[in-house]
Design goal:
4-stranded parallel beta sheet, 13 helices, binds adenosine monophosphate, D-amino Acid Aminotransferase, Chain A, domain 1, 4 domains, binds glycine
């Protein structure tokens, strides 16, 4: 098979690394990729939203399967663009990607399908939103309805913070049209976990669960980020609870999408809260988590490529995935200043030393090579240092040993990834 992965982050590096091991693979490309991805795939200099160029490339190179990684191309309709050119693409249609593209769409679907989630209301009038906050009191959660790369959510402890969020999202339009409406919801308390499922429209196959670390600082302090590290398996979200969430959250969502005539095909990501009243949905995403993907794929024993193909073909019903009974961890190394203002351009050394450690993989997330071939930081989250081990402690020890071999004074990482599993 000739496969094109779309994206340039650590998640896409992990996807490429996993696909490159498939005996079914003839050739792997990645658009636009990064210097780490270049070790396992050929880079294609096309941006993730340039659909005409991606379609032309896929046609010229007789691509058998397109695998988009990030939400932006999915929510912009990459699967439809490929479909229109008869190119197989494993990802949801534009209509099904509303599960990530619109918060109110998902909340309304939850109510229709009986999926447990926080109580909510949608407002397209700022004064009505303010009135609701004053009436309901705090804590309360204010979310831009549209796509904001995870930045449009404020968990407000005070009324002032909630009112300021409404002002920023709806009136100052801090996130543009994504803030034309807000969803205001009940604040849930508990531990957050991520559950992933590969879906073919009708059938969902679990891709396992992982726990992310969203805050930039140790002990869950500081600014929210895209995720500073992840690990799997998750002791606080054992197999039985995962199966209950597949049955009570993922499968009802798929059934409701079929009922609406917009079946979901691709990877469905359920962001969950383990509350005192049971597991509740915080949000759906229509893609693998980043860095959860980097922690999960090293545990996958089965070949990823035929699984993605079966999902595309609607044949997951008789498909099975096997997982290694080991622990895995991904530690994110970020550029100084992340998330507010990451410094770009610093050189990173020692990557080969770290990658040579047994059971360690170093995925590139935000790197570029300069004209001399030196690897330099080019984004906020820059590297994902991943390791497996017999348990989370062993995986974590190996990952941090690899981190110490990386010579990058301008980078930092949290030292406590996986702490909840080691309590
Ligand atoms: P979202 O973009 O919807 O995943 O929200 C980003 C983050 O905000 C989540 O990962 C949670 O930590 C937090 N959050 C979102 N909704 C709620 C809620 N209803 N209650 C408590 N925390 C929430
Ligand atoms: N790690 C969170 C996300 O991928 O959205």
């Amino acid at each position: 098979m000739r496969v094109l992965v779309v994206g340039s982050g650590g998640r896409e590096h992990a996807l490429c690394w996993s696909l490159a091991a498939s005996p079914l693979l003839t050739k792997l490309w990645c658009a636009p990729g990064n210097p780490g991805i270049a070790q396992v795939a050929e880079r294609v200099p096309i941006g993730v939203l340039d659909f005409p160029a991606l379609v032309a490339f896929a046609q010229d190179n007789e691509i058998d399967l397109v695998v988009p990684g990030p939400e932006a191309p999915l929510v912009a309709g990459i699967a439809d663009a490929m479909e229109a050119a008869s190119i197989p693409c494993i990802g949801p249609s534009l209509a099904a990607a509303q599960l990530e593209g619109s918060k109110s769409y998902t909340k309304e679907l939850c109510d229709a399908a009986g999926i447990p989630t926080a109580h909510w209301e949608r407002f397209d009038d700022a004064e009505a939103a303010r009135e609701f906050v004053r009436r309901r009191g705090t804590p309360i959660v204010v979310k831009a309805d549209g796509l904001t790369a995870g930045k449009g959510v404020v968990v407000a402890a005070t009324e002032d913070a909630a009112l300021a969020a409404i002002e920023a999202v709806m009136e100052a339009r801090a996130f543009g049209e994504a803030g034309a409406a807000v969803v205001i919801e009940e604040c849930l308390t508990g531990e957050e976990v991520s559950l992933f499922a590969l879906c073919d429209g009708e059938t969902a196959l679990s891709l396992g669960a992982a726990q992310d670390h969203k805050r930039v600082g140790e002990g869950e302090t500081g600014a929210n980020t895209g995720g500073m590290g992840a690990y799997s398996p998750t002791p606080s979200f054992p197999q039985a609870l995962q199966e209950a969430a597949m049955a009570g959250i993922i499968r009802p969502a798929l059934a409701e999408m079929v009922r609406r005539g917009t079946p979901f095909r691709g990877i469905l990501y359920a962001g969950l809260m383990l509350t005192a009243e049971g597991v509740k949905l915080i949000e759906f995403n229509v893609r693998f988590g980043d860095p959860e993907c980097q922690a999960l794929l090293p545990r996958l024993m089965s070949d990823l490529l035929p699984a993605l193909q079966a999902a595309y073909d609607g044949e997951l019903e008789n498909f099975d995935l096997r997982w290694n009974d080991i622990a895995s961890i991904a530690v994110v190394m970020a550029a100084r200043g992340y998330p507010e203002a990451p410094e770009r351009g610093s050189e990173i050394r020692g990557l080969d030393l770290a990658a040579a450690m047994p059971s360690v993989q170093v995925f590139h997330a935000g790197t570029e090579a300069d004209s001399d071939g030196h690897v330099r930081a080019s984004g906020g989250r820059v590297l994902n240092v991943c390791a497996t081990g017999v348990d989370v402690q062993a995986a974590r020890d190996a990952a941090y040993a690899a981190v110490r071999l990386i010579d990058w004074p301008e980078g930092f990482c949290r030292q406590d990834i996986g702490w909840r599993a080691l309590r």
